[in-house]
Amino acid sequence: MRIAEILKHNQLTTSFEVFPPNDKVGLDTVYNCLDKLALENPDFISVTYGAGGNTKGRTVEIASKIKNQNKIESLAHLTCIGSKKEDIDEILRQLKSNNIENILALRGDYPLDGKLVEGDFKYAKDLVEYIRLKDSSFSIGAAFYPEGHRETNDLLDLFYLKEKVNAGVDFLISQIFLDNEYLYNFRDKLEKLQIDTPLIAGIMPVTNAKQIKKITSLCACTIPKKFLKILEKYEHNEEALREAGLSYAIEQITDLIASDIRGIHIYTMNKTETAKKIIDATGIIRNYHKEV
Ligand code: FAD
Asked: What is the Å distance from ligand 1's center to 243 Cα?
């Protein structure tokens, strides 16, 4: 089913994200993880594209397992910088032939070595337009940044987001954030701009110190005082940090649900244990909000 339809029938969606591994052992681990995540009955599971090495080909393969073997809706991420129209045509063809109906249309990050191959697309908006033109049956999602995207100032970012949404976006998934106020302020701004596209909150339960360093180096995510206290207190005690990080994520999600956010998307990092604990802890309130 298209995610656009799922959002019409559900007041709240719950979903997971996994990433393609670099090797065969990793692939088995992801498949094992998917079998466990499927038992939690999420509305969809997304698979990242290309981030962290040469794993692009695996996105369709993993998204296909989710859809055709686990019988859960899958959302295939797709980036466009450095791609030719023919490359995108081929991916769209593969997605279609594997019954995958949902795409998260992204620009992608510039390579760290600065060596970007010339392509036919500059921004995610160009990809959204192209997919709509090629095959209007896909449900298309895009990324948003509650604290703004690091390359642009807040105002311009909102202006470009509106352009992207108008190109044919059905839903928006957020970058990681640790302070819900950023998301609520962002939602207020979108309302003023008459953008009513459903917002899905991307939540990463931070359960180890390495993760937080990665998050802050990858994106402009503010670490709130409350969270900093947890990090400082428990950075040398793995178990305590894991427990405190999990509690923080559960509290964040509870507040988001009570504030009528349309979806909770958990970045699982290909691990099931934390995701399962969050699902268990929020089950009753998620069910309360699910039906429209
Ligand atoms: P865009 O929407 O194109 O925006 C990029 C920047 O360009 C912004 O600063 C925007 O304000 C600016 N901009 C937009 N239009 C214009 C214009 N006309 N003129 C000038 N400036 C403009 N990366 C991966 O490689 N693989 C993944 O699977 C992946 N999954 C992601 C999932 C989510 C939920 C999120 C939030 C990010 C993901 N990313 C992924 C990272 C993403 O590729 C980067 O954040 C990237 O830098 C921006 O992508 P975008 O689609 O938001 O780009």
From this structure: 32
pLDDT given at position 110: 86
Token digits of residue 28: 């088995």
**Contact status, residue 105 vs residue 79, Cβ threshold 8 Å:** no
The verdict on the CB of residue 45 being under 6 Å from ligand 1 is no
Per-residue pLDDT tens over the stretch 174-224: 999 999 999 999 999 999 999 999 999 999 998 888 888 777 777 778 999
Phi, psi of 151 (to 5 degrees): -85, -15
Active site residue 17: yes
Determine the Cα–Cα distance for residues 140 and 136; give it in Å rounded to an integer.
9
Catalytic residue among 17, 40, 73, 129: 17
Digit-coded pLDDT (tens) for 92-141 = 999 999 999 999 999 999 887 777 788 999 999 999 999 999 999 999 99
- Closest residue by CA, ligand 1 atom 40: 108
Which atom of ligand 1 is closest in space to residue 202's alpha carbon? Answer: 34
Three-class SS of residue 177? coil
Structural contact between residues 161 and 154, judged by C-beta atoms closer than 8 angstroms = no
Q: Are 178 and 222 in contact (CB under 8 A)?
A: yes
Q: Which residues pair with 18 in a beta bridge?
A: 47
Cβ atoms 102, 141 nearer than 8 A: yes
Q: Which ranges constitute the DSSP H helices of the chain?
A: 3-9, 24-38, 56-64, 85-97, 124-134, 154-166, 180-192, 209-218, 225-234, 238-258, 273-290
* Ligand 1: residue whose CA is nearest its atom 47: 109
The residue whose CA is least distant from atom 42 of ligand 1 is 108
